[in-house]
Hints:
Elements: H1 3-25, H2 31-44, H3 46-73, E1 75-76, H4 78-85, H5 88-93, H6 98-124, H7 128-151, E2 152-153, H8 157-160, H9 168-172, H10 176-183, H11 193-207, H12 215-232, H13 238-278
Parallel strand pairs: 1-2
Amino acid sequence: MTLLHVVLQVVVVVALLHIIGLYTFAPVREFRSLLVDAQTNARDVAPTALILGIVLLANGLIRNAGVELSWLIGVNITGSIHALEGQFVATVQSFATPELTMLFSFAYIFGYVFILTFPVVLYVLHDTEPLMTTLVAYSLNYAIGLVSYVLFVAYGPRNYIPEMVESLLYTSWPQAQLLTSQVNVNTNVFPSLHASLAVTVALIAYRFRGRYGRWHNVAIALATLIAVSTMYLGIHWLTDVIGGVVLAVLSVSIATRIVDGNRDRTAIRPRIRRRLRRL
C-alpha cells in the first residue's frame, strides 16, 4: 500500500465522520443561508487563516532542519522524563488487547484528523467567534510546539525503551508509518501536539457549548481518547501529554483574550462614529 492509498483512506473515513457530525451537531439552517454565512465567516477570518497557514508552512520547512538545530542548542530530556515517570507507559500497554489497539489506533489517526478539521467546518458554517478562536489557538499550538521541539530533544518510549514498550500502532497497522513519517520526527515528542490540539478543540467546544448541542461532550470524549492513545501506542510519555494539556490551556486562554479584545474594539468603533456625528 502506498502513501496515496493511506491518505485516501483517511480522507474517505474523515469525510464520512464530517457528514455524520454535521447532521448530528450543526443547527438546522437553510442551505442557502449556510452558504452565505460560510462566505462571510471565511472572509472575516481570512487574515487569521493566512497566519495559521504560514505557521504550518514554517513548521513543515523547519521540522527536519530543527532536529539538527535542537541537537546543537537543545537539551536532551528523555532520560529525565523516564526517570520521572518510570514504566508508566509500559504499565498502560500491559492492558493491551486487539480490540483496544484497534480503537486507539483509529483514534490516533482518524479521530485526530477529524477533531482538528470538523470544528473548522462546523464553525465556518455558523459562527465567526469560535472559528476565530480555533484558528488563533491552532497557530499558537504549532508555533509554541515548534519552539519547544527545538529547545528540547525527547525520544518517545517506543524508541527509548523498546524492550518494554511496543510500537502497537505499527504492529497492528503497519501502513500507518507511511503517513506518520511525513509529519512526525522521533525526537519531537515533548509536548504532545496530538494531546494539545485535541484538548484545544475540547476546551473551545466547551466554551461555546450552548450553541452546538452535544458536540462538546463528543469533543471531550474524543480528546481524552486521543491523549490516552498516544501513550497506549507507545508514542508519547505521560509527561508529553501533560505538557500538551498545559499548552492547550495556554493557547485557548491567549486566543480567547485576542478574539474578545478584537470583538470589543470592533463594537466600540460604531459607537465612536455615532458620537462623532452628533458633535
